[in-house]
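Internal QA ticket QA-208
Title: Verify multi-chain structure generation after dependency bump
Assignee: T.L.

Test input:
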Amino acid sequence: MYKKQVLVTLSVALVLAMLLGSCGTPTATTTAPATSVPATQAPATSVPATTAPTTRTWKIGFLAGVQDPFYTTMQRGAAQAAADLGVELVTQIPQAWNVTDQTPMLDAMVARGDLNFLFLAPVDKDAMIAPLQKANDAGLPLLTVDTYIGDGDYANGPVTFPLSFIASDNYLGGQIACRALADSLGQTGKIYIQNVKVGISSTDAREKGCKDVLAAEYPNVTLVGVDYNDDDATKAQAQVEAMLQRTPDLGGIFGTNVFSAQGAGTVVKNKGLSGIVKVVAFDATKDAINMLSDGTVDLVIAQKPGDMGFFAVEMAMAYMNGVTSIPKHIPTGYAVITRDNMNDPNISIFFYK
Ligand code: T6T
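Actual output:
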């Protein structure tokens, strides 16, 4: 048991040392920190070596944004870390992406009173501030994964009580997506964005990254519209159908997440427009990868949800073991997947499970 306590503290310290040392710029695969680092540094004095180990099992809560392959993969990463560290992971997943589904689940996770820490993906950056503040005031330490509340700067922003924000750089992701889309059109033509809902920090940033890169770098590319599908692939399909009706010479579509890309790809394929209307898909689901290989989708941007879940549990354990230097922001990077590199095992490891 004692040896395990030391193991927990050491592994958390190692990850912290790693994270504090690495924030990189993207390449084909933007690498989060490697896993094997020298086992030298233990956290300074937070956990006195002589403390007798406790027998309690820590309980960490995970509240996802919605049921989808992205959060399923995140849950797997978290479960791996929980198993390594001998903690219990309590997972809750709303059926739909909205504040009215997520808030009562959050309140219930607080009310149960046996959770020692919580990490979650707040579904709206403003509307979820008050419910999270209530959880924090009730004494439940928390961090956010994938999405943030306030402006995401938990060090100097308007909201600073969350301990950390672990996520992709979504603004950058939107830039990568629309640079690739514009280039695939020969830097001229019409582009359309299929998005989820205004107020979600992740997809809002992807849309902004796309718009900014088109405005700054592609004077001959026109953004002809943005639609919001409420995270519903069928609604996305209907919106894409209507857009193609209005704009038969549409050149490309940026699907900002799983269901947006799924809806766009399905219509392009069903209309026999694969390869004619270019599609860039965010999130490396089986569906997106299949559409990449059959030519319907031209590029897939894979986030690293498994890493996000793993780091969240590690940071929770660090905090509960008295570590006080939890990084306020942990970027997890991307893998940019093409038909050329999709069979490379160093790339396919990023396919969502
Ligand atoms: O794209 C991910 C996630 O990053 C985003 O915040 C919401 O949508 C997904 O879960 C995919 O559907």
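Spot checks passed. The first strand starts at residue 59 and ends at 63.
Status: verified.
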